[in-house]
Specification:
The protein has about 180 residues and is mostly helical. Helix content is about 55%, strand content about 5%.
């Protein structure tokens, strides 16, 4: 959704792969956080018209991250990222399946053999590892995180999630929106 803001304001958006760093220090979550967060996600998705389901099994999204890096190189990054989101959260598909990721890229306009060759050769792996290293170096201990105008905000609780308008204000002016959400 953040990519839609780029249409309104002069904005460069970078999607960064993330995993919890081993040395992360994060605030403890309150009781019932998971249940309340799930309810919040359902309500937010419904309000945005985005169907989501929560699957009991955990999927390894590493292949999806690597494929997304390649999709960005081929000019279909945001569309691919949204399609993978829909595959996982709306359709409950396994986004670790290389054939599903390749078919998705092709559906969005990538040339099949080129995408397949680049993806299966592991060329997205280094980009993902670089992202992980940057997150450790910059102490990005939670997602989502936003940075702009030399400032950064890490969202540790879903109740602190900014609206798109608050996020635009932060990105344009570097102003915090936490006071408005407290």
């Amino acid at each position: 959704m953040v990519d839609l803001m780029a249409e309104d304001i002069d904005l460069d958006i970078e999607l960064v792969s993330w995993k919890m760093p081993e040395n992360a220090v994060i605030p403890p979550k309150p009781e019932r956080y998971k249940e309340e967060g799930t309810q919040f996600a359902f309500e937010l998705a419904r309000s945005l018209g985005v169907p989501i389901t929560f699957q009991a099994r955990v999927m390894d999204a590493r292949a999806a991250h690597e494929a997304t890096k390649i999709a960005f190189r081929m000019g279909i990054g945001f569309a691919f990222s949204r399609a993978v989101f829909d595959l996982k959260w709306a359709e409950g598909k396994d986004v670790s399946d290389p054939e599903l990721l390749i078919a998705t890229a092709v559906r969005l306009g990538a040339e099949e053999e080129t995408f397949r060759t680049v993806f299966l050769s592991g060329q997205g792996c280094e980009d993902v590892e670089t992202d992980f290293e940057r997150c450790v170096m910059n102490r990005i201990w939670t997602i989502p995180s936003f940075s702009g105008q030399g400032k950064e905000i890490q969202i540790h609780h879903f109740k602190n999630m900014p609206s798109l308008e608050q996020l635009k204000k932060f990105i344009k002016q570097g102003e915090s929106f936490f006071e408005e959400n407290q």
